[in-house]
Automatic annotation (TrEMBL), chain A:
It comes from the Bacteria. It comes from Brevibacillus choshinensis. The keyword GTP-binding does not apply. It catalyses: L-arginyl-[protein] + ATP = N(omega)-phospho-L-arginyl-[protein] + ADP + H(+). This is Protein-arginine kinase. The lineage of its organism: Bacteria, Bacillati, Bacillota, Bacilli, Bacillales. Gene3D superfamilies: Glutamine synthetase/guanido kinase, catalytic domain. Residues 24-255 form the Phosphagen kinase C-terminal domain. Belongs to the ATP:guanido phosphotransferase family.
Automatic annotation (TrEMBL), chain B:
This is UVR domain-containing protein. SUPFAM superfamilies: C-terminal UvrC-binding domain of UvrB. Residues 133-168 form the UVR domain. Gene3D superfamilies: UVR domain. InterPro entries: UVR_dom, UVR_dom_sf, YacH. Pfam families: UVR (PF02151).
Amino acid sequence: MSQQQFMQNPWSNWMKGEGPDSDIVISTRLRIARNLRQHPFPLLATDSQGEEVVRKVTEVSESDAMRKRHHLQVIQMDQVNPLEKRVLVEKHLISPHLAEESRKGAVLLSPDESVSIMVNEEDHIRIQVLLPGFRLNDAWEIGTKIDDIFERNLNYAFDETRGYLTSCPTNVGTGIRASVMLHLPALVMTQQISRILQAINQVGLVVRGIYGEGSEALGNLFQLSNQVTLGMSESDILSNLYGVARQIIEQERVARTYLLEHTRVSLEDRIFRSYGILMYARTVESKEAAQRLSDVRLGIDLGVIPDVSPLVLNELLVTTQPGFLQQHAGQKLTPDQRDERRARLIRERIADTEK
Amino acid sequence: MNCEECGKRPATLHLTKIVNGEKTEYHICEHCAQEKGDVFTGFHNFSINNLLSGLLKFDPMQKSAKESSANKTLRCETCGLTFAQFSKSGRFGCSDCYTFLGDRLDPLFRRIHGNTQHIGKVPERTGGQLKIRKELEQLKQALQTHVASEEFEKAAEMRDRIRALEQKMAQS
């Protein structure tokens, strides 16, 4: 796949929404942070030191062992324009930090975009696996195998006591951060969400909005991830996250059934109003779009709206973001122009998929 | 006053930014503020590292002024990062910082992770003998359990595996 295609194609593998529990878990993400011994961390590295790290990592990605598993394409950050970077961020393939602040940053992408390896982000190597639905173990299997291939070819910074040494002390140890993106409209509607979020913080997990640190929970989407990386094994971290996510999924299902049984008319009313707005509105702001898309998605999952595919909703979630809209338009747009294009895009996509 | 950005909606956010003594004022609506994002970089940049800095500055366990001045002179001999710089940025400069800043890091790790010792994956090639040592520990524990429950055949099996591993360690 060419660099151009990565930018134009709104479809990433994780959006195909066909994994386990995909009515609630949109995607599963795993990140593994690794660094090379005897190379200053990206924070202090000079341009030429940064380039050397990119060269070493790229070499391994072209080795037979890696080719057998993944055909990775290298994209250098200094060869991508700001709009294209934003698209990569909106598709969750790179972090805002790699896009905006890293020097000599690069990303290695698999054609289906389920694997992206950031080079010279906060750490030298950040392996990311992104899968649709609830698939923590699969993500770990894929990630740890890539990690093994790098480790056979590069000298990792590893310490017997501290584990994998990372640039930030919050990642040291296993270097893994696993997360699931959850769609929890019924828990929000029944106002149970704040109680649940509080409980989560007490078991070493953390919840964020979908675009990572500091972002709010747009469209009832919550990203649940592990906080602790030192003193717990990878399997402990994953099973802890799995167990808590499982509980939340069940709670959401109970809340959805409750709403259907007790407030069916008002729930259907809300869903169909949102559906109507998305089908007919001529201008829609991003925040409203996220909320309406969430309502419609709930309507689809509950069988209230039978003829729209949930996959379209996953796709629209990404393609209605400002960067994507502008990339699609091929020019910079004012907020008003974006609202108009956003409304048109949603109308057309929903009309396309109606049976 | 209307929003400076779109000119339509009323400006609800009033912001004063001072960079190098130069003062700039912004009056924008919430909608444009969200789309514009960059005006607020000052807020968005508040990250986990700022919090770390807070964790490092306040150490009630610190015993003396001597210790605190020792922190000031502590530096990584490889990349030159000082403990003071680290506690400001919350980031290490290279992997050797973990060695040179050493024990001073334990309270921080304990606060973040509740732990100071890694117990997860060990790299095959660069993990040294740690992988074998961990396996040995597990085998020795298993041996004890089998002896305690008088399962002597299983215990003998563990003993043989321990011996084989110890030989392997001695050779490498």
